[in-house]
Task: inverse folding
């Protein structure tokens, strides 16, 4: 009986761990996208400033 109770707990831990990794990946992707957008915006502004 004890053995049976331990198994789902481990599974929940694994799911939680995967969920955490998923959230971390989403956060990393979002920050990278934000940095790229910001970089592109500043690069465009720099180009426009050079033209004038």
Result:
């Amino acid at each position: 009986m004890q053995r049976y109770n331990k198994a789902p707990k481990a599974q929940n831990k694994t799911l939680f761990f995967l969920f955490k990794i998923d959230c971390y990946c989403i956060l990393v992707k979002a920050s990278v996208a934000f940095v790229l957008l910001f970089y592109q915006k500043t690069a465009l502004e720099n180009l426009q400033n050079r033209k004038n």
